[in-house]
Each structure stands twice: as structure tokens, then as C-alpha cells.
Amino acid sequence: MHPLPPRPHRDDVRIAVAGLLGGLALWGIGLGMNTGRPLDGAWLLLPLVAMSALELVRRTRPRCAVALGTLVLVADQFTAGSLATVLMYTDLMYAAVVYGTPAAARRLPVSTGLVTVAATLGFLAWWRQPEAVLVGVMTGLVSFGPAATGALVRGHRDRAADERLRARQTALLAEMDRSQAVVAERARMARELHDMVANHLSAIAIHSTAALSIDEPATTRTALETIRENSVDGLAEMRRLIGILRDSSGDTEPAAAPTLDGLGALVEQSRANGLDVALTLTGPAGGLPAPVGLAAYRIVQESLTNALKHAAAGHVTVTVRRHGEHIEACVSSPYGDRDGPRAPGSGAGLVGMRERTALLGGTFEAGPVPDGAGGTIWRVLATLPLDVPAPGGGPA
Fold it and tell me: Rg (Cα) of the chain, in Å, rounded?
């Protein structure tokens, strides 16, 4: 079953009706364009009606319409001729360029220009009269003029469509960048919040469990003192994070981000929470890029938090070594079941440490390894380059 042809556009119907009525009005008052033609009188109505019918498909069948319109225009020259027929043909030529294929839009202005030149030279050679130039001018006005106008209009439309497409693509890319920036910022805030508060909350959970499970006044008092200290420190960390998130014009000034210079205090705090930990710092701790210093500090902090929550009883070592263009942070703790109270863990700490290391282009390892004495330790090893990669992938 053949598909039905598309319905004419309402504007095309209006143009066809207006052209037909205009041609009838001109015929009614006896105004024609040609004299002394073999088909006089009402014969001009046939090309008029045919050209009006072709106007109905000027948008849906532009090439067919202009080809048949050319034949109708030639036939009109054998009648008294109608100005409406000629004007509708110029519209068909214009529509063929505007609504036709890109190849037709390129060829029609060239071909009609060549026809105009050929008609001018041909009639000059035939008539050898200056009036022959008028024939060329009329040919150009009927064919080349509409085709050139259509090419200009189509060019403007194509450029406008390209600009709209480019604007949509730009808006889409901007939205993707915005979404990625929001996701990255949320992940950064989640890592920062976890690393800042998890250590204190883990100590509070462990010591509160100990205070509830051991009915000794001295133990309870020590646990409560530790809980209070960690609560105060955790509150201070939370207020620092809130200060970072607030507008700088507010009443809270964000404190500086921690660096490797604060590892001593971090280790002392872990000892106060009951962790047997020793720190070894090799190489200068100052002069590090801020992201590297913060990442190394947070990795050590989270590793000590995990040791406090999960490690078996024993010695914990923290080694931070700066060599060449890298800084290496290693935290080792006894591996095995923990005696006594422990805090629950979700695994978010390891994810955060991996993310911090990956963002800086470093390497990260975490897992049980032999300790060289027949036992097993849990080792966290992060190697961070000092040449921090820029967001575009190159060096900062």
C-alpha cells in the first residue's frame, strides 16, 4: 500500500489561492503581458491554474514543482501571458532552493546564472539590438534572482540552526560539568567529614562501651574523660567544617587545613584513646603542596581510626617518608580479632583513602601482609607524588 502524499502546508495553500485569484483579476480587467501570440483570450488561464496547483507542493516537492513550473512558464509564452503566473514561478524557484536538498540549493543559483548569461548573449547574437539585453534581465529576474535570494535565506537559516545546536550542546556540556562538579564536591565533603569526625566518634563508641560493660569507678571515670575530650575535639572539627562551608562574610572563620606538621598531635591523641602507636617522620614535612599534605594527614588519621576500631592488641607504627618527588605514608597494625569493645565500621574509610590517593595520581594498598616474624599485620601504604596533577591531566 502506497503511503498518502503529505498534505500541503497551509501557507502554500494561501499562496496558491492568492496567485490564482490575482491572475483571474488581471484576466478580468484584460491585462496581459504578451501580444500577438497564437493562443489568445482565455488560454492564459491554463498555465495560471497549473502554476497555482504547483504552488501546493512548493515545500513538499520543490524540485518537481520548479521543473514542471519551467514547462508551464514556457507554455505561458504562447498565450497572452499573466503576471501572476510569472510571479508564482519565481516563488517556485525560491522554494526549490530554500526547501530542496543541499545539492539542489548549490546548483540552482549557478545554473540559473548561466542560463541568464546564455539568454542575454543568444538574443544579442540573434537580434543584434540593444533591446536583447532586456530579455536577459527579465530571465535573470525570473530565475537567477529568486534562486540567489533563496540561497541567502537558506544560508542564514542553516547558520541559525547551527548556532541553536551549538547553544544546546554548550548548555548540555555546562550541565554535565555542573553535575560532575556537584558530585565531586559532595564526595570531597563526605571524605572530609568522615576523616574529621570518625576518629573521635570511634573513640567515644569504644570508651562508652567499655564504661557500660566494666563496673569499675576508675575505669568509668577514665572512659568518661576520654569521651568528653573526643566530644570537644569532634565538635571543634565540625565547627571548622561548617566554617569552611559558610560564606566567608559570616561570623565563622575556617581554620587552616591540617598538614603533616600536625601528625605529632594526632598520634598523641590516638595514644590518649588507648592506642599504642609510634611515629617515624623522615625528610622535611614542610613545603608540601597543600593537597598532598592534607591527603597524607587524612590517610594517617583514618588508618589510626581503623586501628582503634578493628586492630588487635599490639603496637601500631606510623611511618611517613619523603623521598625524591614522592611522599610515602605507611601505617601498620596487628591483624586479628580484637579483644574487648569495638566500634562498627562501614568500609567508607578505605574508599575515601583510595579516592584521595587516586585524585593525586598516587598508589594505594591496604590489606594483611606478613610481618617478617611469622605473624600478620594490616598495612596501609599510600604513595603520593609531589607533582600534583592539574584538573586537565597535566602537572599543576
Answer: 43
**Which DSSP string do the residues of 308-362 spell out, in sequence order?**
HHHPPSS-EEEEEEEETTEEEEEEEEE-SPPPS------SHHHHHHHHHHHHTT-
Number of domains in the chain: 2
What pLDDT, in 10s, does the model give residues 67-91? 999 999 999 989 988 899 999 999 9
Given 170, 199, 229, the domain boundary residue is 170
Beta carbons within 8 Å of 60's beta carbon, 6+ residues apart: 5, 6, 8, 9
Q: Does residue 30 sit in helix, strand or coil?
A: coil
Q: Is the pLDDT of residue 46 over 70?
A: yes
Place of cell 614522592: 326
Tens of pLDDT, residues 86-136 = 999 999 999 999 999 999 889 999 999 999 898 888 888 888 888 778 888
Of 170, 188, 209, the residue at which a domain comes to its end is 170
Give residue-wise pLDDT tens across range 218-258: 767 777 777 777 777 777 777 766 666 665 544 444 445 67
